[in-house]
Write the structure tokens for this entry.
Amino acid sequence: MYHTLRSSSVGELSGRDAVPLDDLVSVIETLKARLETHRQVLQANETRTRMALIDPLLQALGWDTADPALVLPEYDLRGNRADYALLDGAGKPVALVEAKKLGQQLVSHRMQIVNYANLSGVPYAGLTDGNHWELYKVFDPAPIEDRLLLDLSIADLPAHEVALKLLLIWQPNLAAGQPVEANEPVLATLTEPVQARPEGEREVERPPPPPEQVPEPPPAGPGWVPLSHVTAASVKGEKSPPPIRLPDGSTCEIKSWWELPASIAGWLWSQGLLTESKVPVRYSSKSYIVSLDGKQPSGRPFIRPQPIAGTPLILNANLNSVGAFLWTKRLLQECSVRLADVHLRFGEG
């Protein structure tokens, strides 16, 4: 069976080509195998990482790294260089991408590539070690964590889920200047090869399939703020966490900030949305949010391990308010739960 992702699934990008989703998934499966089999070799230097992991994925997403009309490697930034400049249709950079060797810490390079893009007037900045991919909006007047559009690890997610998340940097999507996340893409399913239409014959438009009926959560009521409207800056320095309302309408009072991601992880587990196949849940290349053994990627134990009741999960609970907020968002995103369906109550309405 062959799937094609139409541009309508990532916004009204009329007139742009469709991307073969199965092809993209196949490339991601290949990269996952390389990560597992050749990790030590690829960790040796950046060039190997780029050739084996980064270039193939960019090409699968429509960014032909050999075509100067689409990609300029080693892009000059007035004395500095970006590993890749991704160009729009007019030859203007729409994103700069910094590449590091597999396994290299990315956190210390985030502001650097964002600042490079800012000084060059480029609206998006990306960072990757071939496995972990991040994409930031450059010009938003907000903390860098609130400008994060994409944050994923290829090795940690099913290939199909990785493909959907990576459509943020699909060439027609990103080159349009306003990339749209494909949460529930429209798939054109073809059970036989596509036959060319006779010249002059018009394509018959088929009606779209009926939308899947998803029950709406109960109304939140006054005083509840959707998590999608909360920022890291708004919780910074807060000593006491607010009550939380889960997507099924249940609520719970929490006394410490670490209980916020713990409550979410417990609920996700109870709903079958967070399973052992998705654990450990990674926040960065050196940090897990939850794991089954209470250890970081390095093998070191969590500084403050906290078992989550009713699950085999152990939370890395060494958190302040901002960390708890960001980890809560990440858990929900990893399990494809809308942030708008989780609420916090900061005061009575």
In short: Residues 21-37 form the longest helix (17 residues). The mean pLDDT is 82.
